[in-house]
Amino acid sequence: MTRSLTLAFGGDVMLGRQVNASLDPGNPAHPWGDLLPTLHAADLTFVNLECALTTRTERWTDGSYKPFYFRAQPQAVATLMAGGVDYVSVANNHIGDYGLDGLRDTLAVLDRSGIAHAGAGLDRWSAREPAQLIVDEIRVRVVAFADYPAEWRAEPNSPGMNYTPVSLGPEEFGEVARQLVIAREHADLVVFSIHWGPNMRARPTPEFRGFAHAVIDAGADIFWGHSAHVCHGVEFHRGRPILYDTGDLLDDYAVDPHLRNDLSALFLVHLRPPVVEHVEIVPVQIEDLQVNLARGRARDWFVERFRARCAELDAVVVSGEPGRLWVIAPAQVAGARTQAGA
Fold first, then answer.
1. Does some domain include residue 312?
2. Does residue 160 belong to any structural domain of this protein?
3. Biggest alpha carbon distance in the chain?
4. What is the rounded CA–CA span in Å between residue 159 and residue 166?
5. Residue 155 burial (CB < 10 Å; 0-12/13-18/19+)?
6. Domain span at 206
7. Which pTM does this prediction carry?
């Protein structure tokens, strides 16, 4: 029988600006605070890399206004390694901030470090290529997309990212489905990653929910979204989890007093591939360029909001001891309360 796995999914990890300036080569794990043991305990850890890793300073522009450009020195990859990060998504709206050369630099840094990645490449075919990770002969493949900016899409002979609009049209979604079929051919578990939608959106729209359902129907076992900077609720579709948005895990961003983007979570998906047993939520707080376990009133605020967001999606947050939070489908409530010790 396939052994159980724990996959940890975090949201955006932005290592640039003040975070980059604060990194200590002698202690690259410092930004992970007391979340570090949880990260290390997972069989695989996935995050979205919200910056380029490059020394280049010339910014990409098409003549229009772009408010934020994020890059970190290549040495910042040591912080990803110290956090036990196994995979990063590089399909997002900051991977090209320092041009195609900065994108190439980032991919080279990740390759040298041994961190798997998907969603961008040196041409269209490599941008579409799934990442493969193996744990005790269990093959996990990740397909990664972003829905903006379209200008950064990889072309047959030029670098870029794996772009798709959020659409169920036969041409656009047909390509998404095709990539999932290819990934499934050599995988025991398929993860679909997408950087999508506007910042500071509190919940997924009906259009986004329809797209996520279609992705699960097309063969994904886990849907993992990021981009909004705040956590959305979790939904189960055909027994498979949809993490609409996993918020931020590390950054130096200003905090919205109402949406509280400094409060987020690490999402631990417990499964016996391909069957997902439950999703565990570990609330976290970003403060002073470091992420730590959320505590006290901050944790209570996050949990209350997260429960409400999940309820909107017909999922239930079950509290257990010691301080554990599981997200489950309503049909699983009785059994999960017994296991969690509630």
1. no
2. yes
3. 58
4. 22
5. exposed
6. 5-297
7. 0.96
Does 178 fall in a domain?
yes
Q: Tell me: the pLDDT tens digits for 240-257?
A: 999 999 999 999 999 999
Is the link from the previous residue into 37 a cis peptide, with omega within 30 of 0? Answer: no
Four-point Cα dihedral 223, 137, 335, 302, nearest 10:
-40
Predicted pLDDT of residue 339: 55
- CA-closest candidate to residue 159, choices 63, 52, 281, 290: 52
For residues 238 and 276, is the Cβ–Cβ distance under 8 A?
no
303-329 mean pLDDT: 91
What token pair was written down for 334? 């009785």
Question: For residues 139 and 157, what is the distance between their CA atoms, to the nearest angstrom?
Answer: 30
Instruction: List the beta strands (DSSP E) in 82-188.
Output: 87-89, 116-118, 120-121, 131-135, 138-146, 160-161
Report yes or no: 177 and 211 within 8 Å, Cβ to Cβ: no
Predicted pLDDT of residue 330? 76
Predicted confidence at residue 342, as pLDDT, reads 43
Q: Are 96 and 60 in contact (CB under 8 A)?
A: yes
Provide the token pair at 271: 């499964």
Q: Which CATH number characterizes residue 127's domain?
A: 3.60.21.10
Query: Of the candidates 166, 153, 325, 163, which has an alpha carbon nearest to the alpha carbon of residue 231?
Result: 325
Q: Please report how many Cα atoms fall inside a 13 Å half-sphere around the Cα of residue 128, on the Cβ side.
A: 17
Residue ranges in 56-169 assigned as alpha helix (H): 77-82, 99-113, 124-128
Contact criterion met (CB below 8 Å) for 11 and 226? yes
Q: What is the DSSP letter of 155?
A: B
Please tell me the total count of domains within the chain: 1
pLDDT digits (tens, 9 = 90+) for 287-298: 999 999 999 999
Read off the pLDDT of each residue in 76-94 and give the average, rounded to a whole number.
Answer: 98
% of the chain exceeding 70 in pLDDT: 96
How far apart are the C-alpha atoms of 87 and 5, rounded to whole Å?
Answer: 16
